[in-house]
Amino acid sequence: MDWDKLRIFHSVADAGSLTHAGETLHLSQSAVSRQIRALEESLNVTLFHRHARGLILTEQGELLFDATNAMVKRLDAAAARIRDSEDEVFGELRITTTTGFGTLWLAPRLTSLYRKYPALKIDLMLEERVLDLPMREADVAIRMKEPSQADLIRKRLMNIRMRLYASADYLAEHGTPQRMEDFSQHRLICQHAGAPQVAAGALLVQELMSHDIPSMLTVNNYFGVLQGVLNNLGIGVLPDYNAVAFPNLVRVLPDVESGDVPVFLAYPEELRHSKRVAAFREFVTEEIFNYRKSQQG
């Protein structure tokens, strides 16, 4: 198969449109169409169904797209390793973690990393879905449980716990609960027990929901829970690191908390010698050390 035609096919399949692919490839729509038609003729198959909303891959097209997708990721990995042969730390580093941890803990601390490596380009992907590191959906992951995938280097960073917090203004207006039964006078803000979240957090939410709590607000990530708490909507289930970042939060019912939630740093074995990954690993390790000191303080 012609490599150039495969490159054009991959761009069209990824964009779902001849026009958009042409813009990316700096080719005319007719030139892209000719290459796709030539590829289909050489394989004697139809790769796309034409649809009013764009192009849809056929079954054979899906098979070829899976192959070109793997090729592109391997090429990206090779390019990353070539770039990392230089002494200077620069280029793109794709980091994935949860919305809550990435927004509330990681992003505010990136200033020191950029200060040390100003040529670094970070693509921060915040979502609850676990991205596939060996398939290079991301370079580095920070996860709230130990990764199960093979061929990953992993480092345990710290433990966190889920606890109950409220704003001082909310408690001044509604009072501070002294026991779980007092929640009949309060609103609970949390992630839904069935939503993707850390297992220990889900168990704590299930336990809280077993009590008679008349008013609730559920959000699909901890950043949303925090916004509800800061805006005096109720008492929220939040990771303990928020107490350091938001000292105006007041812990409620100190005896109520989840078990330990381990936080792991992970990256593919093939990036073991990556200078960008090493720079990020050192940065996170130092920030964790400072965070622990602040907790002890």
UniProtKB/TrEMBL annotation:
Key words of the record: DNA-binding, Transcription, Transcription regulation
Domain of life per record: Bacteria
Gene Ontology biological process terms from the UniProt entry: DNA-templated transcription
GO molecular function: DNA-binding transcription factor activity; sequence-specific DNA binding
InterPro entries per the UniProt record, alphabetical: LysR-type_TF_proteobact-type (IPR058163), LysR_HTH_N (IPR000847), LysR_subst-bd (IPR005119), WH-like_DNA-bd_sf (IPR036388), WH_DNA-bd_sf (IPR036390)
Domain annotation HTH lysR-type: ranges: 1-58
Record flagged with keyword Ion transport: no
The protein, known as: LysR family transcriptional regulator
Native organism: Cereibacter changlensis
N-terminal signal peptide: none
Family: Belongs to the LysR transcriptional regulatory family.
